[in-house]
Write a structure and sequence with these properties.
Hypothetical Protein, Haloacid Dehalogenase-like Hydrolase, Chain: A, domain 2, Alpha-Beta Plaits, Multidrug efflux transporter AcrB transmembrane fold, alpha+beta, 23 strands, protein transport
């Protein structure tokens, strides 16, 4: 019996191995340490003079620049030394000022011909490649304040609908105060409002002119608002991170008012910081009429022209919470815009407000919560104090031509980048409370390099021991098994690169285990061939019988292991999933190399002609 493969099987094996070689090659080109510069508004405007001055400043500081690359909305400065990253970032930040976002990055160096084939290196986890670690603090007091502002607006609308005259409303701390002309109006309003807002504690107030009452949130209601705020922020941040396309991100609650966000190996760390930390929201308000009382209006500047301003109603028609979807597009003049779709409630409120105000201007107000650091002296020491503040600006003021429904568009944006980021923020949901960066830490490449070196060492030691064992034990067949093992590792790396699977330290452990398990199939086959030879079977028959009879045992053993790996992936956390991914892919590649690649090489060496003896 002659062991031969048809030509198509040899071609299939060669094609798979060539495919694996090409798509594993990008992992041989290490990433360059880099510093990325972008604007805090997303649209970068860095002149050639500024770039030249930056390069000169870096050269004067002894920081060697490899290349400077311009992208549509950023500038990437590649460095030759990893240790220079932090110094370069600090120097660039000091030179450019607060209008720019400067972030550390790792830039791919894959050759163009590989990139044209969509070949890219494996995605490395936070423990290997590094990344960014954000600790965000949720402003719980602002969450309560925002809820009270919304309630105050609803109370004013309810009083107008019931034609109950009131003077003004005021929000202070956890209390809303409402003043009336007389006690009769106050009592009627209190009876009405207490039915709609049962979570408040009410108290009558006597005024020099007229009467009033205060309504204070109970402790249970405050706790409920704050718990909702942090849970809603968690959901919103997860949606934003998913939009960024980061592999295996971590977004979780820490303590009563903090959220941890870890983004391993992000390609655009500046954009990640800008989007994760953004607290942008929208408000839709009508422009105030000339006869509107001053206490019901608010003057706001235009965002792209602070010298201009408009008087708007304090009452909000809807906010960004009512947006169900948002996409970026361009108007008939080629200017960026955002197409908005509202949910059912938002569409009803928008239609009701615009239906009775055709011909009146409606403004879209962009709201962003920020912080600034201020140095103060306390007990003779300089202390940096973080001060939160809110920026409100009008991005669009247009006349209502007809009653609006669930769909409309926002114009007046500065750039397509700003329109894209605004649509992303609206799609992912607005924040229930402002968030601030309590801590920002970039996990440097040095930690990743150290972990990678140790992981590679473990793979190398395991590989060498397996190779030596197979050579000593099975001689010529051991050489064949070792060649197949190298192909197996190549295919595994190629599969992880192509599928975008994230490699972590537990994943490296899965690769080491795969190397050990990969030769199990060959051990079963070779021992079966030995047994058949001892029983007096011819060489060709022994080879055929060894592969055929060991096939079932190999498949059964690998399928049970694959089942365990799938279970680990489905119920495990991040590190366990990383182990399960490499183990699952390793099982598939090892079955291919053990059953087909080694059989093909054995057929080429020993098949097609009679043999009396083989080295096994």
């Amino acid at each position: 019996m002659l062991n031969r493969y048809p030509l198509w099987k040899y071609l299939l094996i060669a094609l798979v191995l060539l495919f694996g070689l090409v798509y594993s090659l990008p992992n041989l080109f290490p990433e360059d340490p880099a510093v990325q510069i972008s604007s805090d508004r997303g649209d970068l405007n860095l002149s050639a003079e500024q770039q030249k001055s930056l390069e000169e400043a870096l050269a004067d500081a002894g920081i060697e620049v490899k290349t400077v690359e311009e992208a549509p909305n950023s500038v990437l400065i590649r460095l030759r030394n990893t240790d220079d990253q932090i110094s370069a970032r600090d120097l660039i930040s000091e030179t450019l000022g607060e209008d720019y976002v400067v972030a550390l990055n790792l830039a791919e160096s894959t050759p163009d011909w590989l990139a044209s084939l969509s070949a890219s290196p494996m995605t490395l986890g936070l423990d290997l490649r590094g990344g960014v670690h954000f600790l965000l603090e949720v402003d719980m007091d602002a969450a309560v304040q925002q809820r009270l502002e919304v309630n105050a607006s609803a109370i004013r609308e309810q009083l107008r609908d019931e034609r109950i005259r009131y003077r003004n409303t005021q929000v202070e701390g956890r209390t809303i105060s409402v003043d009336f002309v007389n006690a009769e109006d106050r009592d009627a309003a209190q009876r009405l409002i207490s039915q709609s807002f049962p979570d408040f504690q009410y108290q009558g107030l006597e005024r020099e002119r007229g009467a009033g009452f205060s309504m204070t949130l109970s402790d249970a209601a405050v706790d409920e608002i704050q718990d909702y705020a942090i849970n809603q922020n968690l959901t919103t941040l997860r949606n934003r991170v998913n939009e960024l396309g980061v592999a295996e991100p971590l977004v979780q609650r820490q303590g009563p008012d903090r959220i941890v966000v870890e983004l391993p190996g992000v390609q655009d760390t500046a954009a990640a910081k800008r989007i994760v930390g953004a607290t942008a929201n929208l408000e839709f308000r009508l422009e105030a009429r000339a006869d509107t009382p001053d206490n019901e209006t608010e003057s706001l500047p235009f965002r792209n022209d602070p010298a201009r301003s408009a008087d708007l109603m304090r009452d909000v028609i809807i906010t960004g919470d009512s947006v169900s979807s948002a996409t970026r597009s361009f108007d008939e003049n080629g200017r960026a815009q955002v197409n908005i779709n509202l949910d059912g409630t938002g569409g009803t409120l928008m239609n009701r407000a615009t239906r009775s105000n055709i011909g009146r201007n409606m403004a879209v107000v962009f709201i962003e919560h920020k912080t600034r650091d201020r140095t103060v002296t306390e007990d003779g020491k300089q202390v940096t104090v973080r001060e939160p503040y809110t920026e409100r600006g009008i991005i669009s003021l247009a006349t209502v031509q007809s009653a609006l429904g669930n769909s409309f568009r926002i114009t007046g944006l500065d750039s397509p980048t700003e329109a894209g980021e605004l649509s992303l923020l609206l799609r992912s949901g607005s924040l229930a409370a402002p968030i601030y960066f309590a801590q920002e830490r970039t996990i440097g490449p040095s930690l990743g390099a150290d972990n990678i070196a140790r992981g590679l060492l473990s793979v190398q030691v395991g590989l060498v021991l397996v190779l030596l064992f197979m050579l000593i034990r099975y001689k010529a067949f051991g050489v064949i098994a070792n060649i197949a093992l190298a192909f197996n590792l190549t295919l595994l790396v190629a599969a992880m690169s192509l599928l975008g699977a994230t490699l972590t330290l537990p994943g490296i452990a899965g690769i080491v285990l795969t190397l050990g398990m990969a030769v199990d199939a060959n051990v079963l086959i070779f021992e079966r061939i030995r047994e058949e030879l001892r029983n007096g079977m011819s060489v060709q028959q022994a080879i055929h019988s060894g592969y055929e009879r060991a096939f079932t045992s190999i498949v059964d053993a690998n399928l049970t292991t694959l089942l365990v790996a799938v279970i680990l992936f489905s119920i495990g956390t991040g590190p366990v999933k990383g182990f399960a991914v490499t183990l699952s892919l390793g099982i598939l590649t090892s079955m291919f190399t053990a059953l087909m690649v080694t059989r093909g090489m054995v057929n080429l060496v020993y098949g097609g002609r009679p043999r009396k003896k083989i080295w096994i």
